[in-house]
Design goal:
By secondary structure, the protein is mainly beta. The protein has 3 domains: about 90 residues, Immunoglobulin-like, CATH 2.60.40.1120; about 100 residues, Sandwich (Immunoglobulin-like); about 280 residues, TolB, C-terminal domain (Neuraminidase, 6 Propeller), CATH 2.120.10.30. It has 1 helix and 40 strands. The strands form 10 sheets. Strands 9, 11, 12, 14, 15 and 16 form a 6-stranded mixed sheet that branches. The chain has a 4-stranded antiparallel sheet with strand order 3-2-5-6, with no helix packed on it. Strand 37 and strand 38 form a beta hairpin. It is rod-shaped, with a radius of gyration of 45 Å. It starts with a helix and ends with a strand.
Length: about 500
């Protein structure tokens, strides 16, 4: 019995010791969780980020420096969660120790961090290397995005003629109509897709070439926003604009042998002769030291000479010749009475020059011819009252077109009331009126032969001086056959 009692006492002691040992290794106490939340990549502090734990403790928000602090956290292991609108939620594990501070720094990605870039756009139309495309073309492409994000597009268009870049931005569709392109020009185009998240993605580059410039034989002037603007037209009346509506250009004159168009325009307050290609490109100034000048700049005319290698043009009472290169300026005639030379035409067949002169207000008109050496030959019109003009030789030089206001009116406004077209025959020294079927109250002006000389082309307009100008045609053998050629045009040239 005594030994049994000893064994029982020993067991009780061991149980007591064991229970005391368990109390000593239990984790108890509290600590602090602190840290900082910044944006991924640039480490910018993020304010008002929600910080919470699991198991739950206090919920706090970061301050303006991105810092947060949770006090009095029981010792243990926690999952710490940070959340902010526009950013991906993030979790980190944190162990809290008794009377200690645990520091956890979070770097947050924006919500779109895992967003994939759009696929490169695929160009559809016009097909690559397309030719003979219209001057108005529809560009088409396809584009997709892995997340089906809304896409916007930028289209860039370059050409092989100049350094111009046409850009269309913030497009939401996959088609684009582009107009105002140049003839006979290769264009290069590319589309860039943007999902607003990733870097934009560009397509390959396609090219297309526009139509060859059409064969236009009629050139004329039209008034746009106060400026004279030069146009061309084919025989069917299809019209193209050749000069800018922001500048003043008038009196087009075509050179048949070199496919150049000469015209008058302003430079530095003076009027000069310029040339350009038939599509309106490659503009060059010809005259410089002696400008074109005289009575009423819009009445002044000039002429190609010597197989389109020279010009004749007026400067008040003097007539000048100049090479088409701008060299060789020479005075070849001066009026004996001081009247101004307003219009000039030159005939290659007989080397005869026709002039129209007038006083400083447009009257005291004379129309006559001179030789290339300046000797007066034929008097066509002289000693009359009223305005006249519109000189044009026939090809063989035996006839001359001109216009004359048969009303004989002379007034301070240089208003013409009843101007008719006449054709003068040098053989018979007689003039025939071609305007016998002209509508009453109108003027026929700016007359020229058609290329086959079976018709004449001219401008008809009301004598009120403000109505629309229209370009007409009439048959020389049947002057009653008058027809509208081009609406809203003046100063025609038909070669």
């Amino acid at each position: 019995m005594k030994n049994s009692f000893k064994y029982l006492a020993l067991v009780l002691v061991l149980i007591f010791v064991a229970s005391c040992s368990e109390d000593k290794i239990e984790l108890t106490g509290r600590g602090t969780l602190v840290g900082k939340v910044v944006s991924q990549g640039d480490n910018t502090p993020l304010e008002n980020v929600r910080v919470s734990t699991s198991p739950n403790t206090s919920i706090v928000f970061t301050d303006s420096n991105g810092n947060y602090e949770i006090n009095d956290v029981e010792v243990g292991t926690y999952s710490v969660q940070v959340q902010k609108e526009g950013y991906l939620t993030k979790f980190e594990s944190a162990t809290i120790n008794d009377n200690a501070t645990t520091n956890i720094v979070f770097e947050l990605d924006v919500e779109t961090a895992n967003n994939d870039a759009p696929d490169a756009p695929i160009l559809m139309l016009p097909e690559n290397d397309a030719i003979d495309t219209d001057l108005e073309v529809t560009l088409e492409w396809t584009a997709t995005d892995p997340e089906e994000d809304d896409l916007t597009f930028t289209v860039e268009i370059l050409n092989d003629q100049n350094n111009d870049v046409i850009t269309f931005s913030d497009l939401t569709g996959t088609t684009l109509i582009v107009s105002g392109l140049m003839y006979n020009t290769k264009y290069f185009w590319q589309v860039t897709a943007n999902d607003g998240i990733n870097n934009p993605v560009s397509s390959s580059v396609f090219n297309f070439k526009t139509l060859e410039f059409p064969e236009h034989r009629v050139f004329f002037t039209r008034k746009i926003n106060g400026n004279n603007v030069i146009f061309s037209s084919d025989d069917a009346g299809n019209v193209l604009q050749l000069t800018s509506s922001t500048s003043n250009a008038w009196r087009p004159r075509k050179a048949n042998s070199i496919d150049k168009l000469a015209f008058l325009s302003n430079n530095g307050g003076q009027t000069h002769i310029f040339t350009m290609d038939l599509d309106g490109s490659n503009i060059q100034q010809i005259t410089s030291s002696v400008p074109v000048n005289g009575f009423d700049l819009e009445e002044l005319d000039f002429e190609w000479k010597s197989n389109d290698t020279q010009f004749l043009y007026p400067n008040f009472d003097k007539l000048y010749r100049i090479n088409a290169t701008g060299s060789g300026l020479t005075q070849i005639y001066q009026t004996v009475n001081g009247n101004f030379i307003t219009e000039v035409d030159w005939n290659q067949a007989n080397a005869r020059i026709a002039l129209k002169t007038n006083n400083s207000v447009g009257y005291e008109v004379e129309i006559f011819t001179i030789s290339t050496s300046g000797v007066v030959q034929d008097i066509v019109l002289q000693g009359i009252n009223g305005a006249a003009g519109g000189l044009d030789f026939s090809y063989d030089g035996t006839k001359l077109l001109y216009t004359y206001d048969v009303s004989g009116s002379e007034n301070v406004d240089y208003r013409q009331f009843d101007t008719d077209i006449f054709i003068y025959d040098f053989v018979s020294s007689s003039a025939t009126n071609l305007s016998t079927d002209k509508p009453a109250g109108t003027n026929d002006l700016d007359v020229q032969f058609s290329p086959n000389e079976a018709e004449v082309i001219f401008m008809n307009t009301s004598n009120d001086g403000v109505s629309q100008n229209n370009i007409m045609k009439l048959e020389i053998i049947d002057v009653t056959n008058r027809s509208l050629f081009i609406e809203d045009g003046k100063m025609p040239d038909w070669r």
